[in-house]
Amino acid sequence: MAVQDRKRLIWLAIGGAAALVLAIVLALSLSSRHKDGPRMNEGTSPGLVLNIDEAPTLDAQKELRCFVNGEFVGMLSIPECAKRNGVAAQALDVGIDESGEMIAAPTASLAPPPVLPSLDATGDGAAPVSNEPSEIVPEAPRTASGPVAACLRYSGGQWNRLSDSLTLGACVTLLYDGRCERPGSASYGRWGAQSLRLVPKRVEISEDNRNFRTLVEQGAGCSVK
């Protein structure tokens, strides 16, 4: 009995060792197979990757909230909204408003230019411009040399002077670098006697505060540098 028990234990030990070796070999094989395969973070997953530059084209016949001269005129398709505004369909900014609804409106039509400050860049005028900004103003960026003038931002219903002597490029960077604007809306500023306007994807400039032209396109992250 003792000899048989000893043999049984030896065979059980051998069987257990063989099973352990087989398990290790299988684990190494599976690990190697997963290592050679595509990794989750390296693969393309529609649920994890979002590229706004490749977003599907909006259906031109889909109805959305249409604005004319800043007034909501109803649910219209893009061509109909453009016709009501007297512009080409490509001239409309299409996006999502604060309520999450899709809207279409000409550039900055929901935010017309504010009244110009009475105190211009030369210091003439009677009405003062606030020299106490309602925001923390970062140090003015350094850009190439050139003419300098006062740089102002319109916010909170008033003009706030950010600096007395900046180049145009430095003023634009201070006002709009890294700032994004919603379709139909705009942010206004002044450089000397010229108006500045931030609309989606670009900064515009005007000599008469009515007719604006593109000054600089915004890059990634709404950068103007």
Write up this protein.
The structure is a single chain. The protein has 225 residues and is α+β, with helices and mostly antiparallel strands. It has two domains: 57-106, no CATH class; 110-225, no CATH class. It is 23% helix and 26% strand. The chain contains three helices and ten strands, in the order H-E-E-H-E-E-E-E-H-E-E-E-E. It has helices at 2-36, 78-85, 168-176; strands spanning 64-68, 71-76, 92-96, 102-106, 149-155, 158-166, 187-191, 194-199, 202-206, 213-217. Strands 6-5-7-8-9-10 form a six-stranded antiparallel sheet, covered by helices on one side. The longest helix is centred in the first third of the chain and has 35 residues, at 2-36. The radius of gyration is 32 Å and the shape is elongated. Mean pLDDT is 75; it is low at 34-56 and 120-128.
Short description:
With 225 residues, the chain is of the alpha+beta class. The protein has three helices and ten strands. It has two domains: 50 residues, no CATH class; 116 residues, no CATH class.
Supply database-style keywords.
225 residues; 2 domains; 6-stranded antiparallel β-sheet; 4-stranded mixed β-sheet; 3 helices
Q: How would you spell out the order of helices and strands?
A: HEEHEEEEHEEEE
End-to-end gap: 91 Å
Physical arrangement of strands within the biggest beta sheet: 6-5-7-8-9-10
Could you tell me the radius of gyration in angstroms? 32 Å
> How many strands, what sense, and barrel or not for the largest sheet?
6 strands, antiparallel
Overall mean confidence score, pLDDT: 75
Overall strand count: 10
Sheet-strand content, in percent, reads: 25-35%
Number of helices: 3
Overall shape? elongated
